[in-house]
Known about the structure:
This protein is α/β, with parallel strands linked by helices. It contains four helices and nine strands. Strands 1-2-5-4-3 form a five-stranded mixed beta sheet. A two-stranded parallel sheet has the order 6-7. It has a two-stranded antiparallel ribbon with strand order 8-9.
Amino acid sequence: MIDDALKDLADYITEQLEGAVSGYEFFKDELVLNARRDDIVKILYFLRDDKECGFQILVDVCGADYPEREADQAGGRFDVVYTLLSMRHNHRVRVKIQAGETTLVPTVTGVYSSAGWFEREVWDMYGVLFSGNPDLRRILTDYGFEGHPQRKDFPLTGYVELRYDEELKRVVYEPVELMQDFRKFDYLSPWEAMTDVQLPGDEKAMKPAHGWHATDKKVGEGR
Length: 223
């Protein structure tokens, strides 16, 4: 059940930030504000400094990818979500904006200094660009990593792999080479699907031509 105080706060914020906040919703009893990307700095300043809000703590900045969403004037395929906490009022709020692959999102490091590393993580994982971030570089992946692994169109294997070369005595990057012999999966049990291949030990599971006898030992009954 939604707290009346939180509902009043949502109405207050949308009234004070008319035009910057397009609306709000409640997800699992938490307030989510839908906001304009270009006004994110203004919005976070208000949420931090207004006495009715008091969201002094930036808990996290994260991303979400919706590649099927068409880019329009509102943003693009990515959501950038800012999670704020008010210790004074014991409230949480999430501010959600949209961004495209080439969209510049204003940095909020001037509002919350901790946003610097959070924005680096969103850039590293999704490729969202933050204009004004003083140190926008990879933070979770290696410096030679290609692409952004949290995008839904990113291959599970990645594009390159690294290994230590004994001859060169250094780490080298190479195109991914998948070495598995079997690559066609039919989403059945792998043991049932491999009907044309006999692995060592399979003969133990073969039923003798004359059938089983009471004196025959079953697998696991001893030697």
